User: What shape does this take?
Amino acid sequence: MSKIQQQSRRVKILFQLFFILTPILVCFFWLTVETPHDFLRHTGIVQTSFNINQLTETPLTLTTRLFAILTSLIYCSIIMYALKILIQLFGNYENKHIFTLENARCYQKLGYSVFYWVGGSIFYQPLMTLILTFNNPPHHRMIMISFQGIDFLTLLIGAIIVIISWVMKEGYHLADEQNYTI
Assistant: This one.
């Protein structure tokens, strides 16, 4: 087994583990946050983009937690989609399928998933702040929306990935054309 195959297999297994753990950890986080079992935040493993203590004036109810889980799982489905593509890509590498049209399409899907991630954050943050502040008294509920510099950088990285996929597709077509030239 070549070095590329061996490392691709390891990375594929790592992404498969992330694919399985992502929804489990999302559910665990929202069920334990602001409880004595909230070790994910206390150890720094998970950091949220908003301070839950500053948003809610009352303890989180089970309904609030369930809505937060549902919203987070919808947003995390973008990550899971990207992980699925990465598993496929590294599976191809493991099977010695390196410069293929399928891999170029994987890169294109990865680039688009970065766009989906930024687009999803535009809806996730306002919805999550509304969910977390819903049990607050009237006039203390909030909706926050933001677009930060990191979001612009993420979009730029997504665009670069899509352009790389175009280059890979063009390279594949040129190589394919050359194979049929006598």
Remarks:
- The mean pLDDT is 90.
